[in-house]
Design brief:
The complex is a heterodimer. Chain A is an alpha+beta fold. In chain A, β4 and β5 form a beta hairpin. The radius of gyration of chain A is 34 Å and the shape is elongated. In chain B, the strands form two sheets. Chain B has a six-stranded mixed β-sheet with strand order 6-7-8-3-9-10. Chain B has a four-stranded antiparallel β-sheet with strand order 2-1-4-5, with helices on one face. Chain B starts with a strand and ends in a 6-residue tail after the last helix. By secondary structure, chain B is of the alpha/beta class. The mean pLDDT of chain B is 91. The chains are: A alpha+beta, B alpha/beta. The interface between A and B is medium-sized, with 24 and 27 residues.
């Protein structure tokens, strides 16, 4: 008996019991649809977090002086003066995995323009910093090498700063603001980036040449940190190793001793935050997977009933020449048809439900091809797995008894 | 005239193990059936009729003895080979018709050919229609089984038994569920098939039917107690004309 005949026979049998077939299918439809929707929601929130992190610069690496022991007392890392400009210079000279490096120093204080003032932190950086943090200039210019060399009193401000200080709507570029009594000329305004995923306002920022902050504001020679970005996110680990090697050599740290600096990468932060969403995805998918399993058991149940109910039909088929494997295939094809059709409908429903969730409650969703493929494959396997046993039972019936079964 | 041997039984025994006891259903049965014979096999219940029918139908294999169907030795065949043999050489007609529910007559008749890969779907349909015409149901091709009377259903079942051009038609109490008139209609059909040269084995406990067949074998306690040829075959068609017509 050929496959087409078997499929015809199975279709015919399903058509004879449409309601039952549909209800059985419903289990699979709900199972597959919920797997797809749940994965779409889980993956969606993961991706939205990843996007926010990559807006901050997903390949960013931050170096800070580490805590040190002085006479048995552990010191706060901000009071450390171990990072020097030579460290920065050496990293710039020797790096193979970093695309941008900037020293950082910062100072908090009151920023004043006319009658308005606001508390803020001025970051002393170089031009690379804008690339590292993915900032761009909306209006005006960035400071130059010349500005850095001369410790020029210039700054670039973010949108929040502009909104709070320039309440009359005047153009801030070219205006002079005062920070801790030192006048700074605004030479550029950053493009707005909004809040990040941690709720920090990325537009509340003032950038100035690091030399200016070092010499004119803080009067220090060390730097408070180095911010850099790896060529690509994947090179983050190599870049960290490289920086560690350079800094340990510069600071003459003996093998076996603790580093006197700490390196953090966005990748760490990213993986920490996605761990939560991954866990959520796994939990959602597990619950959805259980409903798929229940759907599979539904198939098995119905196939059992179907085999018992059709014992005489099986006996007849055997007496007119059906082999055991023909009967096996017939029932297996029936259960596969139920699960595959249910799976297809479930895929459509799942995708539809995911878009509905997105449209109604504005949850971020992301439907990945693999999740659709996976749940479809799982439900096909479910059909074979749960259909096998009843089909085997049908194939092993004795035609003599089956034909006279009442 | 030398007719072809369709069935040859040589000392068939069939034992069943029921708990500790051995039940001897058949105790050494031998006979030969030639092509074109219409044989009734009779016997009371417990005589071994059903077991013999199962053996003849290749559904069961004998414990001892040899069975040749159309020259093929059945006893040593495996399950799948017997299925194929049934598909090609045997046409079954059951007491309770055993038609598929909610299925048209053509589809029911096509069924045996579905399990024969050498038939294309158009050849299958063609053959099924011919078969249904042969049993007088040419106008009921697309009627579903639940839309037909018992007599019509049994005729569909006979058409299904004919569709594969079997070497032998095995009927198991084929008139058992039918009223008198319909029984005669079915008998007329069997006689017609007999005249066309088909080999028919009709298992029944109704002694009347023997007079319409060409040979009668009677079983008792698993043995053949009589095997007689009928030289004066009664015509079922004639009897039918004397019966009152059904209202339907």
């Amino acid at each position: 008996m050929n496959g087409i005949n078997l499929i015809k026979i199975a279709l015919k049998a399903l058509a004879n019991n449409k309601m039952r077939g549909f209800l059985t299918m419903l289990g699979i439809i709900i199972g597959v649809a919920s797997v797809i929707t749940m994965l779409a929601i889980g993956q969606g929130s993961k991706r939205s977090i990843q996007n926010q992190i990559s807006e901050m610069g997903s390949n960013m690496i931050m170096i800070q002086p580490g805590g040190d022991m002085r006479g048995g007392v552990r010191q706060s890392s901000s009071s450390m003066e171990t990072l020097k400009l030579t460290d920065y210079q050496n990293i710039v000279d020797e790096t193979r995995f970093l695309s941008a490096v900037s020293p950082t120093v910062n100072s908090s204080g009151q920023l004043i323009f006319g009658a308005n003032n606001k508390p803020t932190t001025v970051y002393g950086v170089n031009q690379d910093y804008l690339d590292i943090r993915r900032y761009s200039i909306n209006d005006g210019d960035i400071f130059t090498e010349q500005d850095i060399a001369s410790a020029a009193k210039v700054c670039i401000v973010g949108k929040t700063v502009v909104d709070e200080l320039f309440t009359n709507g005047e153009n801030p570029v070219g205006k002079v603001v005062r920070f801790n009594k030192i006048p700074f000329k605004i030479i550029g305004v950053l493009t707005s980036k909004g809040y990040n995923s941690m709720g920090m306002d990325q537009d509340d920022v003032v950038l100035a040449p690091y030399t200016t902050i070092q010499k004119r504001v803080l009067a220090i020679t060390h730097i408070q940190g180095i911010t850099s970005s790896a060529i690509k996110e994947e090179y983050t680990d190599q870049a960290i190793d490289e920086i560690t090697e350079i800094l340990r050599r510069n600071h003459k740290i003996q093998p076996g001793s603790e580093d006197d600096f700490t390196i953090r990468s966005m990748q760490e932060l990213s993986s920490m935050m996605t761990t939560t969403t991954d866990l959520m995805t796994v939990l959602l998918a597990a619950v959805a997977g259980i409903s798929l399993l229940v759907g599979g058991i539904g198939i098995m149940n119905i196939m059992y009933v179907s085999v018992t109910e059709r014992t005489r039909e099986i006996g007849l088929r055997m007496s007119i020449g059906a082999k055991g494997r023909d009967i096996l295939s017939q029932f297996l094809i029936e259960s596969i048809l139920i699960s595959v059709t249910g799976g297809l409908i479930g895929v459509l429903f799942g995708i539809g439900a995911a878009f509905a969730v997105n449209a109604i409650v504005q949850y971020p969703i992301y439907i990945q091809a693999w999740s659709v493929f996976l749940s479809f494959a799982v439900c096909t396997v479910t059909g074979v797995f749960f259909g096998w046993y009843p089909a085997k039972k049908a194939a092993q019936l004795d035609p003599i008894e089956a034909i006279r079964y009442e | 005239m030398n007719k072809k041997e369709i069935i040859r039984l040589e000392g068939i025994t069939r034992d069943f193990q029921v708990g500790e006891e051995t039940v001897h259903a058949l105790r050494g049965i031998s006979f030969t059936i030639l092509e074109g014979e219409f044989v009734t096999i009779m016997g009371t219940s417990g005589s071994g009729k059903s077991t013999l029918l199962n053996t003849l139908g290749c559904l069961d294999t004998p414990t001892k003895g040899e069975y040749y169907l159309d020259g093929v030795r059945v006893r040593t065949m495996g399950k799948n080979d017997r299925a194929t043999l049934r598909n090609q050489k045997i046409g079954f007609v059951f007491q309770s018709y055993n038609l598929l529910a909610k299925t048209t007559s053509v589809e029911n008749v096509e069924l045996p050919l579905m399990y024969n890969p050498s038939y294309s779907s158009s050849a299958r349909r063609q053959k099924a229609i011919e078969s249904l015409k042969a049993v007088g149901l040419g106008d009921r091709l697309n009627h579903k089984s639940n839309q037909m009377s018992g007599g019509q259903m049994q005729r569909v079942a006979i058409a299904r038994a004919l569709v594969n051009d079997p070497a032998v038609i095995l009927a198991d109490e084929a008139t058992g569920n039918l009223d008198t008139r319909t029984s005669y209609e079915v008998l007329v059909l069997f006689q017609k098939l007999h005249q066309e040269g088909r080999t028919i084995i009709f298992v029944t406990h109704n002694p009347e039917i023997a007079s319409y067949s060409s040979r009668n074998i009677t079983l008792k306690d698993g043995r053949v107690v009589s095997d007689t040829y009928n030289n004066d075959i009664k015509s079922a068609a004639e009897v039918l004309t004397t019966l009152p017509k059904n209202d339907d």
